[in-house]
Write a structure and sequence with these properties.
With 214 residues, this protein is an alpha+beta fold. Helices cover 55% and strands 8% of the residues. Helix 1 (14-26) packs parallel to helix 3. It is globular and about 45 Å long. One of its GO terms (biological process) is glutathione metabolic process.
């Protein structure tokens, strides 16, 4: 099976990071093709890759799957233990993953993923409220499991919250001790550190993203 993952820039593309981590955890060979965002012709290039005009997109033997959640579900059919083994935990993992996929608009808007960013300036209240909701959810899940991840062993849910964890670091968002430990666990993962190294080596910048809450 030939797999190629089309992604956006390492420093900024949170949606691309999620399936990239999943594929790395699967330990299957795959190619990566990066599309620089916000450059002349990039929208046309994205539309060539997928009618949705977005990344990530997974090419499987020349058939293309857009959207990070759809890619995650495809991968889980190949490797079922990407979701928790326990049925109740699996249902809850899917629920919180869908919650990240569809919600927390203020956090996304006011604290976009920007791995090179480090600031502790004041953040909009709506963003802080989203962050507090996430911390409360993390703490609840972590208190019910032995950890170090949300459902004991690493799962798709952790892949979806990894880019969120980076935002707590980038923007100095408040978190509990338990959630801070979880964030550190996600960011010390070897696969994430490989992605982060690529982000720090990247020279492409998105001025509008860098200007958010500067």
């Amino acid at each position: 099976m030939a797999l190629k993952l089309f992604i956006g820039n390492y420093n900024y593309s949170s949606w691309s990071l999620r399936p990239w981590l999943i594929l790395r955890k699967m330990e299957v060979p795959f190619q990566t093709e990066l599309v620089d965002l916000d450059v002349p012709g990039y929208k046309e290039r994205l539309l060539e890759i997928s009618p949705m005009g977005t990344v990530p997109v997974l090419d499987v033997n020349d058939e293309r799957i857009p959207d990070s959640l759809a890619i995650a579900e495809f991968c889980a059919k190949m490797v079922p233990n990407l979701w928790p083994r326990d049925e109740v935990d699996r249902a809850e993992a899917r629920r919180v993953t869908h919650l990240m996929h569809e919600g927390f608009d203020a956090l996304r808007r006011e604290a976009p993923m920007n791995l090179k960013r480090r600031t502790e300036g004041p953040m909009p209240q709506a963003c802080l409220e989203d962050a507090a909701t996430i911390v409360e959810m993390w703490d609840d899940l972590l208190s019910k499991h032995d950890g170090p991840y949300l459902f004991n062993e690493w799962s798709i849910a952790d892949a979806f919250y990894a880019p969120v964890a980076t935002r707590f670091e980038s923007y100095g968002l408040p978190r509990s001790h338990r959630s801070d430990t979880y964030i550190s666990e996600l960011m010390s993962d070897g696969h994430f550190q490989d992605w982060e190294a690529l982000a720090f080596a990247e020279t492409h910048v998105l001025p509008d993203t860098d200007a958010v809450n500067a």
